[in-house]
Each structure stands twice: as structure tokens, then as C-alpha cells.
Amino acid sequence: MAESLTDLTISEARNGLEAGTYSSVELVQAHLDALEAARGLNAFITQTPELALERARASDARRASGRSLGPMDGIPIAVKDLFCTDGVMTTAGSHILEGFVPTYESTVSANLREAGAVMLGKANLDEFAMGSSNTTSYYGPVINPWSPKVGKDLVPGGSSGGSAAAVSARLAIGAIGTDTGGSIRQPASFCGIVGLKPTYGRCSRWGIVAFASSLDQAGPMARSVRDAAIMLEVMAGHDEKDSTSAPIDVPNFEAALAGDIKGLRIGIPKEYRLDTVPAEIDAIWRQGVQWLEAAGVTTVAVSLPHTPYALPTYYIIAPAEASSNLARYDGVRFGLRVDGDSLDEMYERTRGEGFGVEVRRRVMMGTYVLSAGYYDAYYIKAQRVRSLIACDFRAAFEQVDAILTPTAPSDAFAIGEKIDDPITMYLNDVFTVPASLAGLPAISVPAGLSQRGLPIGLQVIGRPFDEETVLRTAHALERAADFDTHPLRST
Amino acid sequence: MSLDKDAVRKMASLARIRIRDEELDPLAKELSQIIGWVEQLAEVDTEGVEPMTSVAEMTLSRRSDTAHDGGKVEAVLANAPDRVENFYAVPKVVE
What we know:
Structural class of chain A: alpha/beta
Number of helices of chain B: 3
Number of strands of chain A: 11
Helix content of chain B: 25-40%
Strand order of the largest sheet of chain A: 1-3-2-4-6-5-10-11-9-7-8
Strand content of chain B: under 5%
Distance between the termini of chain B: 39 Å
Order of helices and strands of chain A: HHEHEHEHEHEEHHEHEHHHHEHHEEH
CATH class of the domain at 5-258 and 408-481 in chain A: Alpha Beta
Oligomer: heterodimer
Radius of gyration of chain B: 23 Å
Shape of chain B: flat
Order of helices and strands of chain B: HHHEE
Number of strands of chain B: 2
Largest interface: A-B, 70 and 50 residues
Shape of chain A: globular
Number of helices of chain A: 16
């Protein structure tokens, strides 16, 4: 049972609001107070308290007149500052979008808003979602709420680090993030929460600041699998404004949790067992296998032979797409402009000052792999290997219904660690990138604590558009793990 | 393949990003490292493998080619650093 209003899950708050135990205004105010008290975490770039209270009052009025909009009505959430929000500054964590106030709302945040969800503010992130530590944000690093466990400031993971920290620290009941190579799942693992990257195409990308368009996907971050299911159902669906959003029906994801997992076949891919990964990660993975077997699942050894090539493939394709997507930031129509003596000089100065170190590195890397003479050797080669990676999964899913792996190769590391060598940082996504390249749904569920007392997540990967099996399997893991998501209460 | 300072300068110019001289060496080192690392893909046999062009195997849906939005001059220009009447005002591009 929840100890305070900020400790509630979405499903609990839904019931409390329905029963009139508290109002949305009370619920939202409790979170705004928590947010104010936790400013030191730097989880938000922009807070929107007046807007939140106004929407909470509207929610209460709807409910009073019997016109509630459903399970998300009146629920306070955080929105990653990569989603464009009408009338609210949107930065993508970058200096180059300084002062940018969209005059439109992203489809996913609009879907939530139309379902009554109350936005508390815009959550911090790695600049343009490029990072695994939330330390590349122009607005400074986010601190992992679990940091007191080890007595030093830890990263929340990234790029959806502010979203993950906000949910973990009880500043928001749920949050929306985006995942390109692990940006929902890795921070979920580091902060001890649930994070789901849906199938590519499940949620519209319209109005999300683009990083790598063939990989970007929005998803829910929450403190229970049920909450993630509730949020996803509202977020998902076909959108005419994103031609890659799938024109297929959105199932009742929460209802999927009621299904039995007995008889499911779950694959354990041998290529995810790495010598470089600490034994405690392996131990929790093995524990996960036992939990699922105890729940009546058959586990099957599978092989995904091209797994070792997923990261290098990703670090060709994602920068290539980024270099193209970020060409729009030229200082002409919006955001930062730094004047120069010629148009080219204005472009160069604007982009030189507007982009941080990691973004510049990736844009230049992308420019290189797409440039004349290298395009075939790097970009086309990577797209071929990407086909092979997707093939590996297709073959595995002929034998199994879902795949269980660790989410990240470590627990949360300290702010300032792993920044000297970009490749060391990139290795954070070693277990999450393959599903991204194949466009598959994947969830991270908190499964246990490391020896240092920090959360470690397990990942469930499913067939395209089979979020239901992913959620159901994650739900079984969640029940078995009985993980306390509260950073200061767990021992 | 490793990148030298000149190659980095060229990439920066193609990407329209101003890089200070003292940043060229460290960037050349980092980019060379990353390129060296991604080059391990060369060992994968991709003979006869089609490059992936679409991650979701689906036919793009069609819609009628009609305007259903527009007339939003103020919204479109709301973020313009500079404007003249209903136009973006940009720095001079023709000498």
C-alpha cells in the first residue's frame, strides 16, 4: 500500500481518483512539491506547475460530471524534452534549440493529453538523445536517485535520464521517453524502474525531435509493468502524420497481463553472455531464467550469431541518420543563431556553438560514413549487417515466443566516468541495440540489486507488434522479483 | 582507416560545424578510434545480403493528396529569429 500520494502507481491512482479518495489537483500538487524539493536531481529542464494545476482542475471537473477520460485522466507525468509541446519550450537538451517554443504538440504527448494526463514539465536528457549517461545535456547532468546508496553522484543512464530519475524519485507517476539504441531501457535499468520500447511503428514519431529516424521510438517509463501497459495503450496508434506508424489496431495491453505465460518458450541467447560483464549481471539473468521456469515457461538456448556486430552497425547507421536529421539546425528559421560574415560562416558558427561535443562527434562521424567514396564501405555495409541481425531474430522467433537478456552490462556508474573514451560509453548499449536495429519491442524490468545495492534490470524482447507477450513475461518477472522501486527504502 | 587533421577539417566543413584548431587533433584521434572500431564489420560475410531499407515490413499506407491544414502564418513564423511581413528574413546569400 502506498505511503503517500507520490508513492502511488498509475493503476492505484486511477482507483483512488475514481473512488474520490483524492483529487487530481491533490495528486498533482503532491508531485509538484516533490519536484520542487528534488531540484538538486536536475531531472527537469522546464517545470510547468501552473499548466499542470490547470489541467488537474479540468480533470477533476470532468470526473465530477461523469466524463472521465479513462485510466490516465488526472495522472501527473513527465515528458522527455524531446517531444514538442505546444506553447512549452522544447530544447532536446541542446543549446541550439534555445528559445524554441513549438506551436504544435507531438502526437504521443497529444494522445496522453487528450486522455487527461497532466504534464508536470519537460524532463532532462542527453543532447538530442545522444548518450547513455545524461551527461551530454546542455542543461547539466541528472543525478540518479539511488546515488545515496554508494555515497557519490551516479548517472541515471541515458538518454531518457531525466524521465527515469523523475519516476524513480517519485516526482512523476510515469514518464514518456524515447529509445533509439537503448535510451528508455538502459536508464530504466539504472534507476530501478520499468521502461518499454515498443515495436518500431507502434507509436507515432511525429513531433519528436528526430535523432535516427529508422530507430527512434517513443515508450512509457513507470514503476510497474501494469502502468507501462496502461500508458502504452494511450500513446500508441496509427498517425497519418507519420507514414512509418503502423496502421494496425492497438490491443488492450493491460488485459494482456491477465494471460498465463505457462507453456511459453523463452529464448536465452548465448551471445549475450560476455566475459567483460560482471558476474552479478549474469547471476541475475540466471535468476530470471529460474523465475520464468518456475512460472511454467520452457527456456530454450538460442543463437543470435551477429550480435557482436550490432554496436558497430548502430554507430554507423545512427550517426548517418543524425547527420542528415540535424542538418535542419542552421540558425535560419528557429533556435540559436550566431551571426557571421557570410551565410556559410553563420551556419558554421551557429552549429559550432550550438552543438555539444558528443553531437558534433556524431554528426561528423555520420558525415564521414555518408561521404563520397565511403558510402558503400560503411553505410551500405552496415545496412547489410543490419539485415542479418534482423534475420537472426526472425530465425530465433521461429523457436521461441520471447527472448530474455540482461538490459545493461553494469549498474549505474558515477558522473564523470566513461567520458574519456567514446567507445567505452557506447558499450552501455551492447544488449539493447540489437532489438533496436531489428525494430522489435523490448522492455526492461527491475530484477534485483547489485552488490553495491543498485538496481539491475532484465530485458524481454518480443516479436514485432507482440508487446502483449513482452508485457506478460515482464509481469511474471516483476511478480517473482518483488523489487522495491523506492531508492531509499530498499536494502 | 585513420583520419588526420585535414580530413577532420574537411568533415567539419561538409557538416558546417566550426571546429577550433586546438580541437582538430583530439577529434581526429577519437573519430579514427571509432572508425577503426566500426571497421570490424568488414569481417562479416554480406555477399548476397540486401541492405535493410525499412525496419518495419509493411506497405506504406496511402492517403488522398489534399490539403487539410494551413493558413497558420503566425504559428509558422513564431520562432523565426527575424521576419519581414510574412517571410523569414535571412542573412544575405547573394554577393
